[in-house]
Design the sequence.
């Protein structure tokens, strides 16, 4: 005669009912927690990479703005030198004419020489000025004015491009950081599910089922939230 | 008479328990490695940022020097044009003034303008100066700038981050292995062998995965752990 080692079915039904279900649910919650933790780690890594990129672009933008500052100071300095010399040349020319009219021929010769000097200076400065040498900004006619609007638009173009990249990286950082924060929320909900399953194990079979159902609802809710975070 | 079973249930439970302990230790070790790699990624990124700041500061200084020299060089060219006009005058006092300018003022302005004026390599055919070439020379001459490459640090940080990501995947694989092993421990006798095999299979896969990650990233980082 063989004796069965298994416990009577009625005993299992009374004390151990739903225990296996709760254990499986607990293990499943562990897996879900591991997946959410992985997603959170990934979101944190992406946030960190974007944060670094954003900082790098911010430094480059700042440096580019400083460079543009020096360049524009140089460009405007040359331009103002050119304008000053060109005006001086004109004034000396007019002075020479007036002096000739009054009979002061020596003074007129000196003024004319000064006018020539100022004009030579202006011509040289004009050669150096981006406002006349660059076809993008140079005046279309000999007496026209340089296109200062185009110069101003180009002045900050590179810095603006870098700033755009910086803004994009900063936005991405915020997006991934928010995702990582939301995953922390999901993990907190999963901790509640763990608590409910733990409580279910310790209670009577009827209450066990109730808490197992609560735990399941919490688990399903956290998984749906995780999916939403993943998609958005 | 019943045939003796190959693995009595109790002994198998002990084997599974030992396996769970081994997988748990592996999880702990991979977590430690993950943290270490994360730390390295942070450190390398920080180095990259510091190098970027240093590089940009040096580049800024080089631009400042270039434009400072350019300002004096332009002044030099303008004064040269002035004295060339003065030299055409028949008036002796003006000729004397031109001579003085050429003798004293121009050499001093040339000194202030530096290599932009003294080195003909920077002179454009139209009489202006090649500022880009001067800036490139200044950059090339800077020993600190030559050795500074923030992108190297960022690429290394990227590799560390990638390794961290794969280690996290590895942790998930280990968690799945733990799940099946736990199921083998608590589950019914009929499915025990299957779940045990699944647990062991996933664990073996995770170990191979871990070895591949470590070998690949150690080679990619040039031997750095």
Sequence:
């Amino acid at each position: 005669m063989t004796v069965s080692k298994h416990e009577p079915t009625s005993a299992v039904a009374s004390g151990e009912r739903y225990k296996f279900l709760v254990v499986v649910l607990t293990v499943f919650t562990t897996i879900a927690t591991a997946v959410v933790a992985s997603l959170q780690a990934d979101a944190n890594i992406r946030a960190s990479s974007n944060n670094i990129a954003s900082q790098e672009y911010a430094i480059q933008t700042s440096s580019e703005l400083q460079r543009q500052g020096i360049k524009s100071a140089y460009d405007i300095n040359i331009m103002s030198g050119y304008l000053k010399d060109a005006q001086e040349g004109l004034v000396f020319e007019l002075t020479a004419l007036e002096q000739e009219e009054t009979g002061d021929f020596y003074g007129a010769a000196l003024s004319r020489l000064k006018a020539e000097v100022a004009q030579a200076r202006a011509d040289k400065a004009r050669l150096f000025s981006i406002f006349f040498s660059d076809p993008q900004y140079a005046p279309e006619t000999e007496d026209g004015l340089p296109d200062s609007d185009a110069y101003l638009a180009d002045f900050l173009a590179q810095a603006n491009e870098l700033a755009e990249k910086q803004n994009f990286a900063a936005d991405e950082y915020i997006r991934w950081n928010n995702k990582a924060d939301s995953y922390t929320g999901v993990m907190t909900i999963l901790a509640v599910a763990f608590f409910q399953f733990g409580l279910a194990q310790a209670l009577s079979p009827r209450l066990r089922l109730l808490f197992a159902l609560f735990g399941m609802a919490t688990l399903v809710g956290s998984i749906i939230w995780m999916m939403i975070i993943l998609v958005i | 008479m019943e045939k003796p079973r190959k693995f009595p249930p109790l002994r198998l439970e002990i084997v599974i328990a030992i396996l769970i302990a081994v997988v748990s230790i592996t999880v702990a070790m991979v977590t430690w490695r993950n943290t270490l790699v994360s730390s390295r990624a942070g450190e390398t990124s920080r180095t990259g940022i510091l190098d970027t700041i240093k590089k940009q500061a040096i580049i800024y200084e080089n631009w400042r020097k270039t434009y400072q020299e350019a300002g004096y060089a332009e002044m030099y060219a303008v004064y040269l044009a002035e004295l060339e006009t003065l030299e055409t005058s028949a008036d002796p006092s003006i000729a004397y003034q031109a001579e003085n300018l050429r003798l004293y003022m121009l050499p001093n302005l040339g000194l202030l303008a530096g290599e932009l004026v003294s080195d003909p390599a920077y002179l454009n055919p139209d009489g202006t100066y090649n500022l880009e070439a001067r800036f490139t020379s200044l950059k090339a001459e800077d020993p600190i700038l030559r050795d500074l490459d923030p992108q190297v640090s960022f690429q290394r940080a990227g590799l560390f981050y990638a390794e961290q990501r794969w280690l996290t995947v590895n942790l998930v694989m280990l968690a799945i292995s733990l799940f099946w092993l736990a199921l083998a421990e608590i589950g019914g006798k009929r499915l025990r062998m299957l779940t045990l095999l699944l647990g062991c299979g996933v664990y073996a896969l995770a170990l191979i995965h871990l070895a591949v990650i470590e070998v690949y990233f150690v080679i990619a980082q040039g031997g750095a752990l």
